[in-house]
Fold this protein.
Amino acid sequence: GAGVSQTPSNKVTEKGKYVELRCDPISGHTALYWYRQSLGQGPEFLIYFQGTGAADDSGLPNDRFFAVRPEGSVSTLKIQRTERGDSAVYLCASSAGLANTGELFFGEGSRLTVL
Amino acid sequence: AQSVTQLDSQVPVFEEAPVELRCNYSSSVSVYLFWYVQYPNQGLQLLLKYLSGSTLVESINGFEAEFNKSQTSFHLRKPSVHISDTAEYFCAVSEVTTGRRALTFGSGTRLQVQP
């Protein structure tokens, strides 16, 4: 497709389980971002990839959260030992180029519910 | 570090009335400024941005925003709204000089246009 694709769109899991959320960016976009949006809040930065490497992971809340982008395209956000507080919409965005001019293209998000 | 404040969580307005959505930011370095819009069941989209030059920037659908450095504001305005403008609007900033590419978002303002 032409846009950023995220799967699954909805994920319900139990506390303590492991989840993976996938992001397929726009073809050719070298930069990829993960954000988390809790109810009533704006998107909160988690991690940014430039190519295959994590250029900035300062937003990851703790070591239960990890993300990879092994081939510089698709990325997976991995959450271990999920907690109820992890419930949120996880947004992925991609952009072209190196400038931080802020034109990010967002997917529709993956809604995670931890029971 | 930066922060973005959107004081109004909801703004109800009648169709064809003017509207202003307020955004104030705090940063120790120069910033780029953005407004993103999220229509129902869609991903976030860039509405307009200020990078440099004229402090008044416009979008293709009639919105405008003015960067006011002394008041650290970037309010969004439209002289006459349509039903189709109903959406959530997010103000965001990114740092110019450090090159850190993560956007910092405000908590959003839900614009509800009524007939």
